[in-house]
Amino acid sequence: MEFDERRLRAVVAIAENGSLGRAAEAIHVSQPALSRMLGDLEARLETKLFERYAKGMVATQAGEILIEHARQLTFDIEQARHALQELRGLRSGQVRIGAVAATTRALLPRALEKMRRQAPGLKVELMEAPDSELTDALLDRRIDLIVASDSISHADIEPLSYCDYEDSFQVCCRAIDPPVAPDCGLSEALAQDWVMLKRGRTPRSNLEALIKAAGHSAPNIAVETNTIGTQISILRNSDLLGWLPLAVIADQCAAGQLQVVEIPELLMPRRFRVYRRKQGYFPKHTRLLYSCLTG
Questions:
Q1: Which residues form the signal peptide (predicted)?
Q2: Does the reported pTM lie above 0.70?
Q3: Residue 202 has what pLDDT?
Q4: Do residue 276 and residue 156 come from a single domain?
Q5: SS3 of 195, please?
C-alpha cells in the first residue's frame, strides 16, 4: 500500500505522545479524525499497530517497525522541504533546537535574537531538557541541534564547536534562615537532607561522582523530582540543599531567595557546545542558528 505523509506523521505522533488526544493536539487534527485515520491504516495493513489501554497507547511489534520507518520517511520529506526552501533564501522555515536549562537563560535568547535580526521569518521550536532526553530527541529527529555540556557521547551524534558561554554547578539553599552557612564545609553539607533530580539523570550522576572523588558518601536525598523548576521551589521553601547551575538560580539569588554555598569540592565548571546528527542534511537556517550560537 501507499503511505502518505499525513498517515506517517499520525503514527509518529501517537508513539511520541502516548494517547490519541495528545497526538491529535500535536498534529492539529480532531481526536475522532485521528482515530479514523489509525483505524483505516490498521485495516489496510491487516495488523494492529497500537495496544489501547486505559492510561494510553503502546506500540505493538508491527507498530514499532512502522514507527521506525515513519520517522525516517518524514525526516527525509522535511529535509527535502528545507533544501527547496533554501532556493528562496531564509524568508521562511523552522529551526528545532534542544538545550539544557542553563543555556536557555542567556545563551539561547541572545543567539535567537541575533538569528531573527538576520532572518525574521524563521520560526523556532525550542525543547528544554536534560542531556539524556535531548540525545533521544536528536536521534528520533524531533530536534536538529543540541546545546549541552561535554557529557553527550554517541556514535551517531557529531560534536561541533563550543559556544562562547560558561557556567558552573554549585550547592545552594534558601537565603532566609539558611540550613547551613555560605562557607560551610563539605562534611556539614553532606550531613543535610537534599533535593535532587531522580537517579540516573546527568546532574545527579555528576554530583555523586564528585562526592565519591572527595572520599565521601552521598547525602540523604529527601526529595527527588524530575524538573529543575520544582527543585527551585522546594529549595526556596525548605531547609534542603540542592545542586544547580548558577545561571538557573541567578534570578533567585539576586532576589534574595536563594544563596550559593561555597564548597570547592562540589563546584563543577561547564562549557557548552553544539551537537548534530552525523547523517542528514544540515539546512541553511539551522547553520545560521549554529553560527549565532558559536560566533
A1: none
A2: no
A3: 85
A4: yes
A5: strand
